[in-house]
Design brief:
about 20% strand, six-stranded mixed beta sheet, 20 helices, about 575 residues, globular
Length: about 575
């Protein structure tokens, strides 16, 4: 059965289940009245039993299901949507870095090093200084290499400075020595050591090696689990306030306590989110060793709140850094020896990995920005589909595409995850090429591609689902989704498909998990600007209230409710 036919039959089944009124149980644990349920008649009430939707229909037909113990929630005219799903977050990266990393402001007129000096003064013997900055490939250091510049400020302490998402780092001489990067070192698989004309390491490292260096640096910081769990609780509550019920955690480190952290979360913390955690594959660590670890970590109970059945694969770098893999040279290559950008996983390696992942039940979330990386991803997925239709594949970060590839996403059952819109300067820079174009959301929609929006981060820079939907609908035509319904689906059923949980959540259907977001206004009746100003009044996961706004509390104080 093809992926397209499977999704069609599933849609027909769900449509049948939604016939009004729909009743699945003889009594209700909870009844929600007074709201406008998305895509349903105005008088629809929601019944919940054992954490799942058990009744959808008119109020009068639900009365026979109400008992003395049935809890009642008055939605007070709010619009009720499936719980939002953010497909791409960095919870652990945020928690892991925010307490240890200093900021290096390279955009300042005089590069600010003060914060990192202060942090370095507090470090224990053997600890690395970890910093972050933007512009690591473009800054002019008055003729100095990053290694020389860092050495002038830090002579004894190993230092690593990372770009966001860790695809480019700077290192000083102490750090290079600890990582055994010398004049004679060869470039690792999936990585690049930038060198001077004399073949001396400049201190700039790209790709898979940069991730390994960061892992080594993080090992020098003991993981204070109680504090980490407390911070996780704070961050997860922030997401719940935004109507989010499920997240895809993207690209967590295997080392530095990453997997230990998630295992602790799954066992000891009653998180108010459904978590799908994706370990990031390494192109040069042993394949069999990584497969063995993945097999041990595998979690695939779709009704649970913790899943670990997907991996993250960075096929190439980032266009803004000049490291995304293109089928044509950059006008001004960031890495002169790689004028087309970098493959972190070659097409052959990627193809092999997807086949091996199937053996242990894993799907893949694939970062591919350049058109060559997208091409390699699609053809590897096509080969994997010859043996199985079960794996879930998502492509994210896509900036460029060969037009002939647009139909393949739907044909292969691939979700496209947009964290941002393709850069306009990219279109200007490459508008003359006949081989690849800047990706068009409209072209993807033309071929019924599954499209999911997400913020791509966490913390201070996080963009909420309502803000992201508003932002997208205000984009130029080629970048915006077709209408508000498509935009809502991009945060509900489409990311559910990517995570393989559309049978469990993503829509309000009898038998599915009672995951809901209550919003103070009907999003379908607002203009794009107004959507961002709407307020989430309540969030519910598996029938459990995980967040409630003061307005909703005051309304329900006198009712037989859970408040």
């Amino acid at each position: 059965m093809t992926s397209k036919l499977r999704h069609l039959l599933l849609g027909m089944l769900l449509a049948g289940l939604c016939a009004k009124p729909a009743i699945a149980r003889s009594s209700l644990d909870m009844m929600i009245t007074g709201g406008q349920v998305y895509t349903m008649p105005p008088d629809t009430v929601i019944g919940i039993t054992d954490g799942k939707f058990s009744y959808l229909g008119p109020s009068e037909d639900a009365q026979s299901l109400v008992t003395a113990t049935t809890e009642h929630i008055d939605a007070q005219g709010s619009a009720i949507y499936p719980g939002f799903i953010d497909l791409h977050t960095h919870l652990f990266d945020t928690i892991g870095f925010e307490k240890v990393a200093c900021k290096l402001d390279l955009a300042a007129e005089t590069v600010s090093i003060g914060a990192c000096r202060q942090t370095a003064a507090t470090l224990s013997q053997g600890q690395w200084l970890i910093g972050f900055a933007q512009g690591l490939l473009t800054i002019d250091l008055d003729g100095l290499t990053p290694r020389e510049w860092l050495d002038a400020h830090f002579t004894q302490t190993p230092v690593v400075i990372s770009e966001p998402h860790s695809s480019v780092i700077w290192m000083n001489s102490v750090a290079l020595s600890l990582m055994k990067i010398t004049k004679h070192s060869v470039d690792p698989i999936g990585g690049k050591i930038i060198r001077t004309a004399e073949n001396i390491a400049s201190g700039i490292v790209l790709g898979s090696l940069s991730e390994l260096v960061l892992e080594e640096a993080l090992k020098t910081y003991p993981l204070d689990m109680p504090k980490v769990l407390s911070r996780f609780g704070t961050l997860s509550l922030e997401l719940q306030r935004l109507g989010i019920t499920s997240i895809g955690e993207s690209g967590g480190f295997w080392c530095g306590g990453g997997m230990k952290f998630w295992e602790e979360i799954s066992q000891q913390y009653n998180q108010g989110l459904r978590l799908s955690v994706r370990p990031r594959l390494s192109p040069f660590k042993g394949v069999n060793d990584q497969l063995a670890q993945l097999r041990h970590m595998y979690r695939n109970d779709l009704n649970a709140r913790y899943l670990l059945n997907q991996v993250k694969i960075n096929v190439d770098g980032q266009y803004r850094l000049g490291t995304a893999r293109l089928s044509y040279p950059y006008h001004e290559p960031a890495v002169k020896s790689e004028p087309n950008g970098l493959f972190y996983f070659t097409p052959t390696e990627l193809n092999s990995w997807l086949m091996r992942l199937k053996e242990i039940g894993f799907s893949a979330y694939i970062h591919a920005e350049g058109d060559s990386a997208v091409e390699a991803s699609l053809y590897s997925i096509q080969n994997a589909r010859r043996n199985s239709d079960d794996q879930r594949f998502t492509v994210t970060g896509m900036q460029f595409i060969k037009p002939v590839q647009y139909p393949l996403f739907n044909e292969l059952g691939v979700t496209v995850n947009f964290l941002f819109n393709a850069a306009e300067d990219a279109e200007l820079a490459h508008s003359a090429t006949n081989h690849a174009k800047v990706v068009s959301v409209k072209a993807l929609e033309k071929f019924s591609t599954s499209i999911a929006l997400s913020s791509g981060g966490i913390g201070a820079q996080y963009v909420s689902p309502l803000e992201r939907i508003s932002e997208n609908l205000q984009q130029p035509e080629r970048y915006a989704l077709n209408d508000i319904h498509k935009a809502i689906e991009s945060y509900t059923i489409e990311p559910a498909k990517s995570l393989g949980i559309e049978s469990v959540t993503g829509s309000i259907v009898i038998g599915k998990s009672a995951d809901l977001a209550f919003v103070d206004k009907d999003l379908t009746k607002l203009n794009a600007e107004q959507i961002a100003k709407s307020t989430v009044l309540m969030t519910m996961l598996q029938g459990e209230i995980t967040f409630v706004h003061e307005k909703m509390k005051s309304v329900n104080q006198t009712t037989n409710s859970l408040f």
